[in-house]
Amino acid sequence: MTEYFQDRSAIFESERLLKESYTPNDLPEREEQLKRLGLEVLSPVLNDAPPHNAFLYGKPGQGKTAAARFLLEKLQNEVDDRSGVSLTTIFQTCKGHHSSYQVACDLVEQLTGENPNGHPKRTVFARLYNALQDIGGIVVIVLDEVDNIGNKDMILYELPRARDNNHIEDMDVSVIGISNDMTFYDELDPRAKDSLCEVEIHFPPYGADQLRSILNRRSEKAFVDSAVTQEAIALAAALAAQDLGSARQAIRYLYKAGEFAALNDESQVSEEHVREAENHVEQMNIAQSIRDLTTQDQLALLALTSLANESETPASTPEVYSRYTDITSHVETNSIAMRRVRSHLHDLDMIGVVSGAKRSGGSRGGPKYYWELNTDFETTVDVLTEENRFNNVLELIDKP
């Protein structure tokens, strides 16, 4: 084997089981949610009736998508053993989409192989209904990460009412929406809420004991026997439980810890590897969060980063705005009003990139928001450097 590759079989039995795309064969930690989804939502299919529409919600990594895939596969097996029931399941991710129109275009492409993007909305939905009519029977459409479409939620009341509105006939369509945003339900159009949320199922964050159980099951098949210590599993579970309560995060910690052990030619994954993995994953998450920011978000962050480099943080909103306008002039970009920059700073605070706190202005007036970086300085500068037009500003920032 050349110097460019490594045989990791001393640590890993099957790395595939640690990938996000893997769906486990059992979900005992979600037994309550599975029973509700099966009994309250999907059971009518066995009597050749459409299932109820449902809304599954909770933070990322709580098993929502895995639960839907798991039960729908089991339901399909039940239906296959019966005669007279035709069931089709369609999974569609809404990630990267910002409207019902975009989701409808993707559904048409998934069903027909042709994307109608650019055609009028009425034409797109007509093609979607025709494609569903061609399938017939009972169709369950799972819209994953549906919160991405925001308030452009027309598809959430269009699809469940397709038969009532004579868009399809002699068949049924039901929708299961999955959301990572716990507030998305509250902001839904009342018609969409009425159509989609016949049954609502909340997936709360996992506790440390649940995550440890998940990691133990996954590691039994993913790692070589005795390649992972129980201490390492317990630490990965505890770290994830303290942060997001996410199974995805806990598995990511353990997977990266295994990679560090393999790279160091060590035969066992230890607590030290897990701590190294947590730091690495956290830095990668921060970097991706910054890359995903809008230009104005990045400019506000750049202004705060510049002030942090000069030990001028926490900085008030007017101070950040003053530096922001200096930067926009320097890179020849249009500036926006201070209230909008303040809004961008609040958005950055919500995703954990910066930290803002309201403090008394003392002799300088009433209370103001003061801002400071909540991310590693070097990582922030490195990622912002990827945007070439910021380079002439970032050259002025010396890393500590």
From TrEMBL:
UniProt-listed InterPro entries: AAA_22, Cdc6_C, Cdc6_lid, ORC1/CDC6, Orc1/Cdc6_arc, P-loop_NTPase, WH-like_DNA-bd_sf, WH_DNA-bd_sf
Listed GO biological process terms: DNA replication
Keyword 4Fe-4S among record annotations: no
UniProt: ATP binding residues: 206, 218
All copies of domain Cdc6 C-terminal, residue ranges: 301-384
Superkingdom of the organism of origin: Archaea
Keyword Lyase applies: no
Keywords annotated in UniProt: ATP-binding, DNA replication, Nucleotide-binding, Plasmid
GO MF terms, alphabetically ordered: ATP binding; ATP hydrolysis activity
UniProt-listed SUPFAM superfamilies: P-loop containing nucleoside triphosphate hydrolases (SSF52540), Winged helix' DNA-binding domain (SSF46785)
Pfam families named among the record's database cross-references: AAA_22, Cdc6_lid, WHD_Cdc6
Function: Involved in regulation of DNA replication.
Record family assignment: Belongs to the CDC6/cdc18 family.
Protein name: ORC1-type DNA replication protein
Source organism of the structure: Natronococcus occultus SP4
